[in-house]
Amino acid sequence: MMEPSEPRDTLLIELVENGDRFLPHLSIDCVVFGFHASQLKVLLLKLTNADLYALPGGYIYQEEDTDQAGARILAERTGLTRIYLEQFGVFGRHDRTNNRVHQQIFESFGIPFDPDFWMWKRFVSIGYYALVDYDQVTPTPDLFSDRCDWHDVGTLPPLLFDHARLVEKALETLRLMLDHKLVGFNLLPEMFTMAELQGVYETILNRKFQRTNFQRKMLSLGILERVQKKYGGGSHKAPYLYRFDTGKA
Amino acid sequence: MMEPSEPRDTLLIELVENGDRFLPHLSIDCVVFGFHASQLKVLLLKLTNADLYALPGGYIYQEEDTDQAGARILAERTGLTRIYLEQFGVFGRHDRTNNRVHQQIFESFGIPFDPDFWMWKRFVSIGYYALVDYDQVTPTPDLFSDRCDWHDVGTLPPLLFDHARLVEKALETLRLMLDHKLVGFNLLPEMFTMAELQGVYETILNRKFQRTNFQRKMLSLGILERVQKKYGGGSHKAPYLYRFDTGKA
DNA sequence: TCAAAAGTGTTACTAATACACCCATGT
DNA sequence: ACATGGGTGTATTAGTAACACTTTTGA
Q1: Cα–Cα distances in Å, from A179 out to A31, A165, A184, B119, B172?
Q2: In terms of domains, do A83 and A203 share one?
């Protein structure tokens, strides 16, 4: 996890000089999904001094499991641990990275571009997708970015390299998973209403469900526990809150 | 592709000395599925001088796409090009390889074991699964194996490292794919009978289908072209042969 | 008592399954 | 004629979808 007290330049120099602490040529990119205002969101970094966005990513320490590395990278960008995180593919075209972009980014930090520098080599990237509770996330830029924000999956800004393809593939995988591995709960707070859950499914799968049938189906799975009422302040009945019962799943 | 005229030792020395032509710490392992005698088969290498089996695998050249590398490795072990090949996961635990096994294998070739040698470092492996026509394959051992044979997926011999887990995961993925990405044809010759196709589905999914319903369903997909009769020599009607119509898929 | 949430019941439609039965055809 | 391949029809069942209607409950 990044120490907030350390100055940014120190961290940058450390990263530059300690390339041998990482597995070379191998990176991780994360597609972090969140759900807010009836929209599916993705967490993107805005590269410093460029109108270009990138997925949160990083490198794998020599003695670190790839899954651990994914979790670590995600903790750094979101402040969250114990995130639902799953691998969805490897992106290994030898020309997927592009040194013209590298050069621009690096020189914007006042560092002369060296094509032999480890970070500008060819990289094979392992794609992970994460499902998180939107409200729990503290978006945190990394060393090469000045912003970290949520974006609607429908309207993405220009993305670095093949990152648009990664988002696409992650979304395909998420849609597949949603059907038969009750994964949608991870996008909601610990307690949620049935209407919110329905919203998640409708947004991701891009179709409407009948309220009554949806409710019947979800409850019949026997993995939702009704907890209490949600007092929303309206002049009407408060909806029930449910919790995903991990014990029964 | 390996030159059959080159002596084995020359190839071995070349591989040992040219480790820098490959991406370090990154390997590919292939789960090659075939179908024969109503059984789903996997292609395994028997390691020289050890009662241990391994998946066909290899390394990625510096300027090579990972998908290309997979196809190349498969061509070397099967003699086939244009194979149906798909990635199914990355195996990246830092302790997944094991130098005691490495040592045994290497010393069996009379080469002293050097723990700093590139091949004995930690490796992250990309898993690919392939679907091939059993009869077209020419199983070919690699430098570290003395045999290359088909094995029933149900009864596998002891496997190297986490290769048993790779087979398991590949099979899971294959079962998922079979449902909604008509992939089964790749396990059969170009022309096949409906009964053979049904056999493939029944074996992989481990359940029986009603002949009539199976036939109706397959034909209703509109991607099978009936070609001719199969003269099997029996005293009965010859079954039709079908071809997978790629144009309509 | 109003408004929204939650639950029940019923009908219609669709897809999967099981099975009976007939036709085709090579020896 | 016989054995096997290939095809049709149809009853049953399970799962989805659509919708009307009732009940609950907070302000």
Answers
A1: 19, 22, 10, 41, 16
A2: no
